[in-house]
Amino acid sequence: MTFQFTALDHQQFNHLYGLSDEALARQGVITEIAKTPNGYPCRVSLALPEPGERMLLLNYTHLDVDSPYRSSHAIYIRDGHPSGYFAPAHIPDMFNLKRVAVRALSTRHHIQAAELAQGQQELRLCIERLLDNPTTSYLHLHSPTHGCFLAKVTRSSQPDELSGG
């Protein structure tokens, strides 16, 4: 058993790409220019932008389910970027240095466990441990300080290329 990171589908944001700051503001979207290479993690590419890139800050319902845990929060997306795709067991580079809150959710979309992890090795072990529980359906990763949704992680049916299994 291995895991798979899933970025947000860029197609749901196509109607926002390339709009003026004023047109975006009318839809509740704020534009910001990335100032550092370590901020503004993009939920569509699962990558950090280069300084000077235009970022869109908007509210997104990342847990759009009939559950007490239904949730939305602010997210950043890179203006015009396609969705990232990641091979099974691959952790996107944006998680190299970031501390991450990992939430394990059941098939009823209830949080059944949560842990903090920092760095790819610690995150890998955390993901594998939480997904090893058969009652865990999927994981949501969040910023531990601001609470923003970062990514979804599920079990992958493909072999783990790192372990050869």
Give the arrangement of secondary structure elements:
Layout (H helix, E strand, L loop, with lengths): L1 E5 L14 H5 L4 E4 L20 E10 L7 E8 L20 E7 L5 E8 H13 L6 E5 L6 E8 L9
Antiparallel strand pairs: 1-8, 2-3, 3-4, 5-6, 5-7, 7-8
Structure write-up:
With 165 residues, the protein is mainly beta. 11% of the residues lie in helices and 33% in strands. The chain is built from two helices and eight strands; from the N terminus they run βαβββββαββ. The longest helix is centred in the last third of the chain and has 13 residues, at 119-131. It is globular, with a radius of gyration of 16 Å.
Q: What class would the helix/strand composition place it in?
A: mainly beta
Order of adjacent strands in the largest pleated sheet = 1-8-7-5-6
- Helical content stands at 10-25%
Shape: globular
- End-to-end distance: 8 Å
Secondary structure: number of strands: 8
Strand percentage lies at 25-35%
Poorly predicted sequence stretches spanning 5 or more consecutive residues: 159-165
H/I helix tally: 2
Major β-sheet annotation: 5 strands, antiparallel
Order of helices and strands: EHEEEEEHEE
The mean pLDDT is 92
For the CA atoms, what is the radius of gyration?
Answer: 16 Å
